[in-house]
Amino acid sequence: MKKAVSIATIVLALGGVLLPQHSAASPALLRVKVFMKIVSFDHNLTPGVFKVGIVYPKNAPQSAEAVFEAFKQVQTLRVKGRVCLTEAVAYQTPQQLDAAIRKNRFYALYIVDSVPTAHIPAIRRVAREKHLFTYADS
Bridge partners of 135? Predict the structure, then answer.
């Protein structure tokens, strides 16, 4: 618990550096910047590019548009010299998610807020089995 509180404190403290208080940026852009800042603390990040799967409900692809746009806006940001690539993952079942992870070799899954709360434990279980970092909007 103490470690989780410490990490949260660091992220909040550094958030002020990355996210200016007077920013008129969209909520999606702010969340993506926080995500990138959190990733920068990972000492196990492999060299080269890292891929992030943007997970959204299969029946609502438009719900991920703001997140994709936010990632485009920060595409020049590097995390320890590495470039972030994104790929759409239309979530329907854990098996389909597992196949997408194997195919794309993701480093992390970014779960958009339109994914039903009931599906998040299954997504996180699959991600944990594959040793992936997960980040949820809500």
Answer: 110
User: Contact, 30 vs 66, CB < 8 A?
Assistant: no
Token digits for 7? 């990490």
pLDDT in tens, 60-105: 989 899 999 999 998 888 888 888 999 999 999 999 999 999 999 9
C-beta of residue 119 within 8 angstroms of C-beta of residue 93: no
Which residues does residue 91 pair with via DSSP β-bridges, in sequence order?
57
CB atoms within 10 A of CB 68: 18
Euclidean distance between CA atoms 120 and 16, whole angstroms: 29
Place of tokens 């940026």: 25
What burial letters (b/e) apply to 84-108, b meaning 16+ CB within 10 Å?
Answer: bebeebbbeeeeebeebbeeeebbb
Q: Which two tokens stand for residue 20?
A: 């200016």
Give the tens place of pLDDT for each residue, 15-36: 444 444 444 557 999 999 999 9
